[in-house]
Amino acid sequence: MRGGPGQPHPARVARPLPSTALGSGSGGRARGVGAEAGRPGAMVPCQFRAPGVGSPADLCPCFPPKRPTPRPSCHASCFPWLPTLTAGLLGAALLSPQTAAQAPNGQAEAGLPAGSAAPQELDGRLVQLEGRWHLAEFGRHYPVLMNEVSARPLPGIGADRLLAVLAAAGIEASVMRISRLEAVDFQLQGADPAFVALAALRNSGLVRWAELSALGAYTLQGPPSNDALYGEQWYLENTGQSGGLIDADMDAQEAWALEVGDPSVIVSVIDSGTSIFHQDLAANIFVNAGEIEGNGLDDDNNGRIDDVRGWDFANNDNDPTSTFFHGTAVASCVAAVRNNGVQLAGLAGGDGPGSGVRVLACGIGAFFPVTSVIDDAVIYSADMGARVITLSFGVPSSQAIIDALRYAHDQKGVFIDCAAGNNGGTIGFPANQPEVMAVGSTNRFDQRSNFSSFGPSLEVMAPGESVLMLSLNNGTTTSDGTSFSAPLAAATAALVFSANPGLTNTDVRQLLKDTADDLGAPGFDTLTGFGRINAGRAVSSALGLTPAKFSPYGSGLAGTNGLKPVINYTGGLPKVGNGAFALTINRAGPNLPATLGVSAGTAQAPFFGGTLYLDLSQVVFTSTALTSPLGVGSLGVPIPNLPALVGLPFEAQWAVLDPQGPQGLALSNAATLQIGS
Predict the structure, then answer these.
(1) Domain 549-674 class?
(2) DSSP designation for 536
């Protein structure tokens, strides 16, 4: 039994799935999907490694090897490069529509008792794929758990009345749990009883709703800090590393200059589970002060014993760790400890010991999110004081989850975001819910990722390609997916709450949209929403400040060796009173005169194959310096402490006298400077 110190707790999911849920053969796998080796139904690693996966523990999960089927079936996340996933993958996010075949409406299916309602009459989303029932929604197919249903009774109706209804229908059932919102999960006995139980409950007149449970899919596709790998985190500070577009990032350093993350702000990561003792994450894991660790008691009377560092809802125990890296990766995007000299930096990970927001770890199924436990995780997170909940998965629509989202958002004031999805098409559930901010993915060029789902419910974008993240066994890895865009957006929301605790969840949601960097058509568009989140501007706005901004754009004119000079800055952002601000040039020819121009307007006139961006009629000043032997130069541009300068934009560009260049002159790209407060 997993679990921390103290009394072991009964596993919620120690039951096999029926053969129709797993394919042909006898026996089954434990519902927890995160069971450890040696436990009934444990997953074992296969021999296929996903690109970018960094440790043996991150290998592809497979079905138990002692099944009658001759070969294991790997989870789709091991192969993010596949355009579609095969129908045999349990919990796959995509299945070829050509493989789905619905039985004629009204026709009884094999294995159902005589006289029972046909599945399509119970739920029009049901399709059969290779002998297994799935819920089809938004172009995705989710495997149904045939030994489980959920229902929310009408006021005054207890679970015992519903058990009697099931018994009258010939279904032996037991109550697995009752949520804070009185939703009841039933475990069913017998051969594929879910459809019969669903019909009985819906026809009883005693429930607000009844629904099937299914397995969803995580939205996985496919480091100024002293953290060793910070330079690889292009999405925090894009300096053009690996050929990316300079400043196509979230302006993390600009945000950190104002706010690094307050420990009182809790971000709930509802996911596969989190490595709560990871060397670069442990210090920022939420610790429940209401529990006495290891005493085997429910000290805070929340119904969970020893939930000191979160809860595993799939296995119903106090160990939210996992055999799959996904949840750890998501958590690290939010709160990997920054400035500790170890590995990488989380966007809201503080600036050393004692700072940084706290991650509340909630497990909902290691390799596949289980729909029937997600509502409980959302409610728990809200009740434990989370200000932010981040979700990086897709599941079929569920009224239980909708009720929980409304509770967290409307009654508890929680900001909730969710990965938009990776099918390159319609945004699914729960990202499409009004209580949830849907987050799409961008790449290092500030372009929409081709896998990123889109549509009218898309609100913002965040980096989701080549994201460096923590993995199992104290390791790191790199991966793609909106799974990692969502926690970066959540981390920004957490920084905003840290900067201004008085803001509401709706305030923060609007602020993230208002301060995003527009990427597509002006304003909102269905491909990129309101734009890519800018953490620096968001935090500045939360504090009532005008954000300082350095935004390079365009291209220049090549000089020596065909290199185009690049403009940048040192000494901090262009704020009033910043006497250390300087504009720099690199990639120029060595020991050459380089003239800096600063203008109040742009010209964008062609110039020998490059572009002269300065409007010479509005030039504020020019100044010349010599480049170094390495082709680097700098000029100080001290900014007076004048409030009248706040918010003013200026343009800047370098011109280099370069006799060895094709035109005898080289030009850098240009940059817009906004003077901040």
Answers:
(1) mainly beta
(2) H
Whole-model pTM: value is 0.70
Residue 325's pLDDT is what? 94
Tell me what the mean pLDDT of segment 436-452 comes to. 96
Residue 370 backbone phi and psi in degrees, to 5? -95, 120
675: Cβ–Cβ under 8 A, 6 or more apart, which residues?
A: 546, 548, 574, 575, 576, 639, 645, 646, 647, 648, 649, 650
Encoded tokens for 420: 């938009």
Q: Which pair of tokens denotes residue 172?
A: 């032996």
- Over residues 549-587, the pLDDT tens digits come to 888 888 889 998 888 999 998 888 898 999 999 999 999
Burial 270-280, CB ≥16 within 10 A → b, else e = bbbbbbbebbb
Rounded Cα distance between 548 and 561, Å, is 34
Q: Give me the residue spans of the domains in the chain.
A: 19-218, 230-542, 549-674
For the chain, the average pLDDT equals 82
Q: How far apart are CA 121 and CA 669, in angstroms?
A: 63
**Quick check: 522 pLDDT over 90?**
no
SS3 state at 482? helix
Amino acid identity, residue 202?
R
Cβ atoms of 377 and 387 within 8 Å: the answer is no
**Please, are residues 490 and 330 in contact by the beta-carbon 8 Å criterion?**
no
DSSP tag of 517: B
Structure tokens at 584: 């720099």
- The CATH number that domain 19-218 falls under is 3.30.70.260
- Of 156 and 114, more confident: 156
Dihedral sign, CA of 423, 426, 429, 435?
Answer: positive
User: In percent, how much of the chain has pLDDT > 90?
Assistant: 65
Burial of 156 (0-12, 13-18, 19+ CB in 10 A): exposed
Q: List the structure tokens of 542.
A: 């939360």
Summarize pLDDT for 459-516 with one digit per residue, the tens.
999 999 999 999 999 999 999 999 999 999 999 999 999 999 999 999 999 999 999 9
| Sign of the Cα pseudo-torsion (396, 400, 404, 406, in order) | positive
pLDDT value at residue 16: 28
- Residue in this structure with the two tokens 């607000």, named with its chain if needed: 208
Nearest to 66 by CA among 101, 42, 48: 42
**CA-wise closest residue to 597 among 579, 585, 588, 581:** 585
Give residue 111's Cα distance to chain centre: 40
- For 79-109, letters b (16+ CB in 10 Å) and e give bbeeeebbbebbbbbbbeeeeeeeeeeeeeb
Q: Give CA–CA dist 197/19, Å, rounded.
A: 18
Task: Report the C-alpha gap between 637 and 654 in whole angstroms.
Answer: 13
- Give the mean pLDDT of 429-449: 97
Question: What pLDDT sits at residue 119?
Answer: 63
Superfamily for the 230-542 domain: Peptidase S8/S53 domain (3.40.50.200)
pLDDT in the model for residue 70: 28
